[in-house]
Structure formats: structure tokens, C-alpha cells
């Protein structure tokens, strides 16, 4: 006895709703973001991946349907009806991809504005100076400077839940400031004023690297970022100011 098609559709909808309510979207290969700016990039990545999956399922679904449904002609060797210049159909399959591109472009523009927006009064300002083959972190408002050596990168300390503004400067060739857990990467280019905001959402230690090949010892240009509570951040600044004095 065949079940009504409506019952199958109702069951499919119920399963889909249950799955959607019971789990969140995966990262699709991206790490969990540890900054507010990274969360925006993470959401954009998820949206693009879901859009690609939907388009892929529709395309492959139609292909499989055609291959199965019309795998054998019901009229023998007779050529099936040929349709040309089907204007409504052509308008539909031209308009849909254009709309998809417009939507993806719009959300990308929005995400870029969110990520590149700069806080007028950040909690910390840090000049990130890249040089072959290490980094220097200078806090101009606090007169604190941390300088690394090739193979032994420096440590940047910033407060959690507050915005730190990083001014990226190169002392020689092009470098790239990259923190995988922040989903943030920006180049250091001579003559280009690159400034980014980072608002960490979790305390912890994070690895950073130079992501732009800058010479033979490029692989040694590592650094670390330690995100701490605001009180601990102030204590760290006081300790380094006293040591410098």
C-alpha cells in the first residue's frame, strides 16, 4: 500500500525542522573566531558556504532527475519535442544568478564595513612594526615597547572585551599580520596606512605569523598575543613602565 505523497512531505519537513533546531551551522573548515571582527567574517563564510551548497544541490538534483526520468525515450527512436526561444524560462535562469551575485556582493560589502570600522577611542593603541625577521609592538600612549628577535617572537598583550587599535607598519619589505584565531590578516606595505581594530572575545594565548613571504627567514617571523582581563592588562603596563624607568 502506497503512502500519500503529502505524508512523505510532512515527514521531510518535520525532520528538517528538528535537525535545524537541534544543531547550529558548522564552521566548514574555519576555526571558531575569538574576536568580534572574526565573528563577522565567520558568519560571512558560513553564509557563502550554505549558498554554494544550496546552488549545488539544486543543480545536481536537476541533473539526477533528468538522467533518471528521461533515461529511456517512451517513443522509441522518435526525436522528442524541441523548444527554442522560451523567453520566460530564459529570463528566470538569467535573473536568478544575477540576484544571487547581488545578494552575496551586498553582504560582503556589509561585512567589510563592519570589519574595517575603526573605534574613535580604543582601549589600547599598538604600533605593529614588522622587520626582517621579527616584530616590534609599541604602545605609544603608554610608552611601552616589546621587541622580538628572529626565531623568538614578541608577545602582544591586549584586554578582552575591549577594542585594541593596531597600526601596521613595515620597516623594510612587505609583511602580513595574521592571527588565525581572530580570522584577521592584513598586509604591512610601505607607504600604505593600514589600521585595524581587534576586539577579543575570550582570554587566552594566540599564535600569530607573518603571512607574506618576505625573504629566506620568513618562517621565523612568529609572535604571540595574550588576551587578558582589563585589570591584568593595566598591571602588565605598569610593570613594563616601571622596568623601563
List descriptors.
alpha+beta, 4 helices, disordered N terminus, five-stranded mixed beta sheet, Immunoglobulin-like, 245 residues, 2 domains, elongated
Question: Can you offer a commentary on this structure?
Answer:
This protein is an alpha+beta fold and 245 residues long. It has two domains: 14-70 and 85-116; 124-244, Immunoglobulin-like (Sandwich), CATH 2.60.40.420. It is built from four helices and ten strands. The protein has helices spanning 5-22, 36-69, 87-116, 230-244; strands at residues 124-131, 134-139, 144-147, 155-159, 164-170, 175-179, 184-188, 194-198, 204-210, 222-228. The chain has a five-stranded mixed β-sheet with strand order 3-2-1-5-8. Helix 2 (36-69) packs antiparallel against helix 3 (87-116). The protein is elongated.
Short description:
The protein is of the alpha+beta class and 245 residues long.
| Order of the strands making up the biggest sheet | 3-2-1-5-8
User: With helices defined by DSSP (H or I, 4 residues minimum), what is the helix count?
Assistant: 4
The coarse overall form would be elongated
Based on the coordinates given, report the CATH architecture of the largest domain. Answer: Sandwich
- The value of Rg in angstroms is 27 Å
Amino acid at each position: 500500500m502506497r503512502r500519500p505523497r503529502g505524508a512523505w512531505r510532512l515527514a521531510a519537513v518535520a525532520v528538517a525542522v528538528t535537525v535545524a533546531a537541534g544543531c547550529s551551522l558548522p564552521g566548514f573548515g574555519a576555526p571558531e573566531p575569538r574576536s568580534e571582527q572574526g565573528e563577522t567574517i565567520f558568519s560571512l563564510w558560513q553564509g557563502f558556504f550554505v549558498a554554494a551548497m544550496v546552488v549545488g544541490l539544486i543543480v545536481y538534483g536537476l541533473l539526477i532527475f533528468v538522467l533518471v526520468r528521461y533515461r529511456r525515450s517512451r517513443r522509441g527512436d522518435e526525436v522528442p519535442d524541441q523548444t527554442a526561444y522560451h523567453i520566460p524560462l530564459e529570463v528566470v535562469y538569467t535573473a536568478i544568478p544575477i540576484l544571487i551575485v547581488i545578494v552575496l556582493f551586498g553582504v560582503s560589502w556589509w561585512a567589510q564595513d563592519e570589519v574595517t570600522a575603526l573605534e574613535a577611542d580604543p582601549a589600547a593603541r599598538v604600533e605593529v612594526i614588522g622587520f626582517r625577521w621579527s616584530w616590534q609592538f609599541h604602545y605609544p600612549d603608554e610608552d611601552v615597547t616589546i621587541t622580538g628577535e628572529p626565531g623568538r617572537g614578541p608577545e602582544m598583550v591586549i584586554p578582552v572585551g575591549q577594542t585594541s587599535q593596531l597600526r601596521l607598519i613595515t620597516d623594510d619589505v612587505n609583511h602580513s599580520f595574521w592571527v588565525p584565531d581572530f580570522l584577521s590578516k592584513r598586509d604591512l606595505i610601505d607607504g600604505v596606512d593600514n589600521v585595524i581594530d581587534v576586539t577579543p572575545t575570550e582570554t587566552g594565548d594566540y599564535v600569530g605569523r607573518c603571512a607574506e613571504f618576505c625573504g629566506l627567514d620568513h618562517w621565523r617571523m612568529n609572535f604571540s598575543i595574550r588576551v587578558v582581563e582589563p585589570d591584568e592588562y593595566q598591571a602588565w603596563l605598569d610593570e613594563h613602565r616601571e622596568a623601563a624607568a
